[in-house]
Amino acid sequence: CCGNDEAAPVCYDCFRNNYTHCTRCGQTISNDDCWYPLDNDDPYCRDCFDAIENVPIHDYYFKPRPIFYGTGPRFFGVELEIDKGGEIGSNAEQILAVGNREHDFYYCKHDGSLDDGFEIVSHPATAKYHLTQLPWKAIMAEAVSLGYRSHQACTCGLHIHISRLAFGRTAAQQEAAIARLLYFVEKHWNELLKFSRRTNRQLERWAARYGYKDTPKEMMDHAKSYHYGRYTCVNLTNEDTVEIRIFRGTLKYNTLAATIQLTDRLCDVVTCLNDEELRALSWSDFIAGVTEPELIQYLKERRLYINEPIES
């Protein structure tokens, strides 16, 4: 190599073959001195590695290598925002101590949309794994005991990331199913608005609708030309996931369970039905196949579950 010490300049070929930059601070580091916090694929210097490994609340752009739980390809990653209790590292440590006793299920991140809190992020898991193995009840109870709020804070969302592979093996299959998802959300916007516990004004700010079109393909074409970035009801900007952003935050377990189950049911219908079948699907048809007790209870609480005729 043409450089014999750290201060000596190197040629382009030597730099390309032997050096890189720290992802966090930009410092030049040799390939032999790279560190990879929490299995992240990006290189860091030792100082930044130590800072990231040891900090309980990561910055907003932090993204570790995902750990998948359950048998895919349909995985859900949950982002639960909590507020009003402080963006305090020791609080995050207590919550993570409860959530990660057996496995690394969760990590915490800063979120600029919150007044005084942070978001709890799960690694991707199947719906069944989320509701039978992840300690969501204990996580929520710990957050409440520390003074946090989610639904009551009015600033918090509950976002569900769905793996794109859940919609099909090929890019064409995925696009067709995601188009049906967009269509379903727009067609049944009023019902999903009730389910979300959000107001129209909140959704306009954080999860704006695209606007109804007559067919799933038209919906997808319209969404592709939309310029609101990730602040849409169904966020399509991520390479590996589709994110549903309409739900309001919660620290009530049954509500979280019902939200995951509804998302799972959405995946069922958009992957099993063709475009014409989905267009003919009513809300009553959609919920007719629901069997999960948490989702049925929640739908009844929101007056969205009607399984008997009602006389006027």
Description:
The protein is α+β, with helices and mostly antiparallel strands and 312 residues long. It has helices at residues 12-18, 46-54, 89-99, 127-132, 136-145, 171-187, 189-196, 200-206, 216-224, 253-272, 275-280, 283-288, 293-301, and strands spanning 19-21, 28-30, 57-58, 76-82, 106-109, 118-122, 157-163, 234-235, 241-248. A hairpin with a 6-residue loop joins β1 (19-21) and β2. α6 (171-187) crosses α10. The mean pLDDT is 92.
Q: Show unreliable segments.
A: none
Rounded to the nearest angstrom, the radius of gyration is 22 Å
Q: Reading side by side through the largest sheet, how are the strands ordered?
A: 3-5-6-4-7-9-8
Global shape: globular
Mean pLDDT: 92
Number of DSSP helical runs: 13
Please trace the helix and strand order, writing H or E for each element.
HEEHEEHEEHHEHHHHEEHHHH
User: What's the N-to-C terminus distance?
Assistant: 86 Å
Q: Please state the structural category.
A: alpha+beta
| Sheet with most strands | 7 strands, mixed
The number of strands is: 9
Classify the helix fraction into a percent range: 40-55%
